[in-house]
UniProtKB/TrEMBL annotation:
Gene3D superfamilies: 3.40.50.880
PANTHER family for the chain: DJ-1 PROTEIN, DJ-1_THIJ_PFPI FAMILY PROTEIN
UniProt source species: Streptomyces mauvecolor
Similarity comment: Belongs to the peptidase C56 family.
Protein's name according to its UniProt entry: DJ-1/PfpI family protein
Pfam families on file: DJ-1_PfpI (PF01965)
DJ-1/PfpI domain sequence ranges: 4-178
NCBIfam families: PfpI
């Protein structure tokens, strides 16, 4: 039986940051599930840069069904966790069910891949204290406030925690995560 990977997300997640790891991990032979606040069709977004804007713009993205509600997740059934970015982490960090899930992964030192605004979730449970991370560069102060050492790099690996800035860093992010994942939870 293939090891299971959990992706936690919600509406307004960055389309590429959910679907790229979802497809890439399935391609490797992992069984990947998406969990959200409720079982429903999620509405993702596309963040991109436009000339004349000081920050990214947001456009409607893909829709995708959530396999599970956070309340249905048994973290013990999963070998690793993926935390996409977008706007979803801003409100998801307030969800007590999700915080329990995140804490279970960090307490057992299972592999975690986070990208963009995803580290807002790990910061909410104190999971970044003393760690080296990267995130969307505008979150540098948030990461420092959470006790992390922020590095503006394509990907940062700190033990079983693998972080990346944003979707342009996908290839390196997943390559590094798969290195950690194959060592801790190889496909059988």
């Amino acid at each position: 039986m293939a090891a299971k990977i959990l992706i936690v997300t919600g509406d307004a997640a960055e389309s590429l940051e959910v679907l790229y790891p979802y497809q890439r991990l399935r391609e490797e032979g992992y069984d990947v599930h998406i969990a959200a606040p409720a079982r429903k069709k999620l509405r993702f977004v596309i963040h991109d840069f436009e000339p004349g804007f000081d920050t990214y713009t947001e456009k409607p993205g893909y829709t995708w069904p959530a396999d599970l509600a956070f309340s249905e997740v048994d973290p013990g059934q999963y070998a690793a966790l993926v935390i996409p970015g977008g706007r979803a982490p801003e409100y998801l960090r307030n969800d007590p069910e999700l915080r329990k899930i995140l804490k279970a992964f960090f307490d057992t030192d299972k592999p975690v891949a986070q990208i963009c605004h995803g580290p807002l979730l790990t910061a909410a449970i104190g999971g970044l204290s003393g760690r080296r991370v990267t995130a969307y560069p505008a979150l540098e102060l948030d990461m420092q406030t959470a006790g992390a050492t922020f590095q503006d790099a394509e990907t940062v690996v700190d033990g079983t925690l693998v972080s990346a800035r944003a979707w342009p860093d996908h290839s390196r992010w997943m390559r590094e995560f798969l290195t950690v994942l194959r060592a801790k939870a190889p496909v059988t």
